């Protein structure tokens, strides 16, 4: 999925969970970016070497933040179908 997002102009920022995820998404939004939150990819570098992380409940709740510059309209959160990602 991240290759598809990159081709659409999205930049991967970082992975977060809970309050920090919401704060970061809101901050990027206030700075004028569109924000997309994707489920964590278990093959990403940060968890690929840790087999126990792949099934952890924390990993299933975390989201990777992607941003792209706003197209000139008011910044907004991009909603994706639940199977591809979610906005918290």
What labels would you give this structure?
single chain; 88 residues; alpha+beta; 3-stranded antiparallel β-sheet; 4 helices; 3 strands; 23% strand
Could you explain the architecture of this structure?
The protein has 88 residues and is of the alpha+beta class. The protein has one domain. The protein is 32% helix and 23% strand. It is built from 4 helices and 3 strands. Strands 1-3-2 form a 3-stranded antiparallel sheet. The longest helix is centred in the N-terminal third of the chain and has 13 residues, at 18-30. The radius of gyration is 13 Å and the shape is flat.
Distance between the termini: 19 Å
How would you sum up the global shape? flat
Helix content: 25-40%
Largest sheet: 3 strands, antiparallel
Oligomer, anyone? single chain
Beta strand %: 15-25%
Q: What is the chain-wise order of helices and strands?
A: HEHEHHE
Radius of gyration: 13 Å
| Chain-averaged pLDDT | 78
Low-confidence stretches: 79-83
- Tally of discrete structural domains: 1
Structural class: alpha+beta
Total number of strands: 3
Major sheet strand order: 1-3-2
Number of helices: 4
């Amino acid at each position: 999925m991240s290759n598809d997002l990159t081709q659409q102009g999205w930049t991967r920022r970082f992975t977060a969970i809970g309050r920090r995820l919401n704060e970061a998404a809101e901050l990027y939004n206030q700075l004028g970016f569109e924000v997309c939150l994707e489920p964590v990819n278990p093959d990403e570098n940060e968890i690929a070497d840790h087999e126990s992380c792949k099934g952890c409940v924390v990993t299933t709740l975390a989201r990777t933040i992607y941003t792209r510059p706003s197209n000139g309209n008011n910044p907004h959160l991009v909603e994706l179908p639940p199977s591809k990602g979610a906005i918290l």
